[in-house]
Write a structure and sequence with these properties.
This protein is of the alpha+beta class and 102 residues long. It is built from one helix and five strands. A five-stranded antiparallel sheet has the order 3-2-1-4-5. The model has no long low-confidence stretch (mean pLDDT 87).
């Protein structure tokens, strides 16, 4: 999926809503690509989907998003925890973003 923006963010709060949908509010630590129009990422707490994934307050995530929609975290999406992507993966993303700017 092509993303309009990518950033490294840290989860500040998580709120459980209807149907087990969790709204996670992040603070942007580093912009990698574009400008995020939301700092919210959603996930479904009680999903039976194989791709289900969760966020943890205090943890850092690399968020990929499209303007006008709220990103969702899952093992089938590009959004991942920094632990999953690793510092090398983050460095590669930053390098690719820098090359696109030139």
């Amino acid at each position: 999926m092509e993303s309009d923006y990518v950033y490294l963010g840290q989860v500040q709060s998580s709120t459980l809503g209807e149907n087990g949908v969790v709204t996670n509010e992040l603070v942007v630590l580093e912009k990698i690509k574009g400008v995020a129009d939301t700092k919210t990422v959603k996930n479904t707490l009680f999903s039976e989907d194989m791709c289900a994934s969760h966020m943890v307050v205090g943890y850092k995530y690399v968020v990929f998003g499209k303007t006008g929609s709220i990103p969702e975290i899952s093992s089938c999406s590009n959004t991942r925890s920094l632990g999953d992507i690793g510092k090398e993966g983050l460095a590669q993303l930053q390098e690719m973003a820098n090359k696109r700017k030139q």
